[in-house]
Amino acid sequence: MLLEKYDDATIQAIYKVALNICSIETDQIAKQTVLNEGDRKRQFKYAEDGVHFARQFKRKCLPSTDEWCGHPIKSICEQQENADLVFTKGKKAINIGRFNWTAYYNEIEEEQVKAIDKVEAEKQLNSPVVDFPTTTQFDTLKLDNPPAEGSHNWSTSFHGLSTARFPDEVANILLEPIKPEDIEIKPDGMLYLPEIKYRRILNRAFGPGGWGLAPRGEHTISPKNISREYALICAGRFVSQARGEQDFFDVSGLPTAAEGCKSNALMRCCKDLGVASELWDPVFIRKFKKKYCVEVWAEHVTTKKKKKLWKKKDDTLEYPYKET
């Protein structure tokens, strides 16, 4: 709820109705619980969390009656970790003593997060794809400007595509078999070559500055994913084009996700040059996993849940898993 939409009277009414669900009469609430002046957000949070706890506590600890209900006294300060919790029935009251509200908030956080994730998932399915805010580095106007004489607009040009083969010394480097120690395996069993290895191969083949990635459009961003098309230019020639993508979990991580998107596009473009082509060959994959990898049972160090994970025979599992 956005608190800006509600006045103090409405918040108090919401609090009364919510507590009434827990079988406390509304006129009794007016006498027992007064929303003092102060921070409205804090008041609303106490009302909401107090009701939630009251319902949980009644169900777990007082199953024999519907007349008892708990709520926090309103003298709680935001800075207090512990505060008294009072249970009432008519004119009687039982103070169960100090209650650790911080621990309680942490306990219910998982349920709240699951509910939020469900709402976000529905939003993601229904939300349209939007453009990623541009920066001066990826300014559309600059990409659309006519190229200088003797150069090419790599945002649209296919100059040099398939006009001639690369020299043998370049081709030999690009098609060189990948060393087993350079190949990594993900816990789900997928083989991959770290993106820095692709860059090193291109630097050996064309030299630093002899190749580059040219954006072919702006970033496209959905609630959890960012993507962009890039063209791989080598020795002044268009070689390949691919769309890179990267998942992210928070908008603050968009710059890092944009860089991961670029690296993903580079990996896909390199397939057309034959770089690390073994990683898409099912026969090679089966032989490599049989010779260099192993699937082991692993245990999560905190949840103690067990599952099978892949790793290289000379490697150890990374946190939070340990081999059992």
From TrEMBL:
Q: Which GO terms describe its molecular function?
A: single-stranded DNA binding
From which domain of life does this come? Eukaryota
Q: Gene Ontology terms, cellular component aspect?
A: mitochondrial chromosome
Report the main location listed first in the record: mitochondrion
Compartment annotation: Mitochondrion matrix, Mitochondrion nucleoid
Keyword tags: DNA damage, DNA repair, DNA-binding, Mitochondrion, Mitochondrion nucleoid, Transit peptide
The keyword Cytoplasm is annotated on this UniProt entry: no
UniProt-listed InterPro entries:
Mgm101
Write down what this protein is called: Mitochondrial genome maintenance protein MGM101
